[in-house]
Amino acid sequence: MRAGRLALGDLDALVVTNLVNVRYLTGYTGSNGVAVVSRDRRLFFTDFRYMTQAGEQVAGFEVAKGERDLLGDVAEAISGRVGFEDASLSVRRLERLRSLAGSSAELVPAGDLVEALRAVKEPGEIEAVRAAAAVADQALSAVLERGLAGRTEHDVAVDLEHQTRLLGAEAVSFDPIVASGAHGALPHAAPRPQAIPGDVFVTIDWGAKLDGYCSDCTRTFATGDGVAEEALEGYELVRGVQQASVEEVRADRGGRELDAVGRATIDDAGHGEHYGHGLGHGVGLEVHEGPTLSPRSKDTLAAGNVVTVEPGIYVPGRFGVRIEDLVVVTDDGCDVLSSLPKQLTVVS
Fold first, then answer.
1. What's the confidence (pLDDT) of residue 4?
2. Which of 58, 71, 174, 196 is the most exposed place for a label (fewest CB within 10 A)?
3. Model confidence pLDDT, tens digit, residues 127-159
4. What angle do CA 93, 49, 32 make, to 5 degrees?
């Protein structure tokens, strides 16, 4: 029981308002719900619209019907030292909850208690992410069969999203990135209604959401054999750093330490200023969650983390390259969930 693993510390209860965390703890997928976890009781509140859904989905919690604004119902159920999710609860809602609870409850920031649990995936969660990654890879493979050169970036992105849903995903993890030529120098480029030319790189960053769990992957393709030599050298640089970084992933490695594996190599090759993001991030119910792999990370990997490994270089006005795998951290290495090849592939 996930709620039973919450480390409440000196808290008498925790109010969970972040709907992703609510889903993780209770199984509820609706849009209005709050969970209250105390040492001797677990309550789930929703309103009339979702009572049937809650009855079918929520496990391990008492389900209580409240008003559409659930804070009044929550306030009546809490007392003592009560934690709230300070990363997601707005100031306005917090002050309303304080007002409603009055002197019966001392509301204090609780940090990322649920997020800490979510970072280490259970076997069933890993299988859900694995399935999402497989759907995403199948979707892109189908799109690539229709070619890239001559199609607009927007057309490819829409095709990818449509194909992902056709294969059974409930949604894409995020709006796909399709960026060709110099546009690829924007790490989070929005697809344009502009035709993809031949003999350039096309970076595609995409993912599927299946049973609530996300995938995330990036590949960079060539649209012909005439790609500029500078870009080809950049591709091989990123590919080497990405593979070396994947090989270093294992439990007990620090996020900052892993980020450093290839950063010096990229810097030595003269592209240090063109690599402005971290090596990776956690993926699960959200496409960006803990732990992080970056120069400022304070995280240490644990078996069961699911993280991306995605170095890249972005040369303004010329080209961009990113290669990203999704991996499951194990005690002695990692399990790579991304199946598409990383050798440069020409898709005309």
1. 85
2. 174
3. 999 999 999 999 999 999 999 999 999 999 999
4. 30
CA dihedral 57, 132, 190, 225 (to 10 degrees): -170
The whole-angstrom separation of Cα 82 and Cα 39 is 11
Q: Which residues contact 26 (CB under 8 A, 6 or more apart)?
A: 3, 33, 35, 44, 57, 58, 59, 60, 61
Contact 201, 319 (CB under 8 A): yes
Domains in the chain, ordered, with CATH?
2-118 (3.40.350.10), 120-336 (3.90.230.10)
Annotate 289-314 with DSSP letters as a single string. EEEEESTT---B--TT-EEEE--EEE
**CA atoms of 44 and 59, how far apart (whole Å):** 10
pLDDT of residue 184: 98
Closest to 311 measured CA to CA, from 296, 293, 335, 286: 293
* Each residue's pLDDT tens digit, 181-223: 999 999 999 999 999 999 999 999 999 999 999 999 999 999 9
pLDDT digits (tens, 9 = 90+) for 26-51: 999 999 999 999 999 999 999 999 99
Residues above pLDDT 70, as percent of the chain: 100
- Between CA 76 and CA 80 the distance in angstroms is 12
Instruction: Give residue 259's Cα distance to chain centre.
Output: 18
Checking DSSP bridges between strand 34-38 and strand 13-16, what pairing results, if any? antiparallel
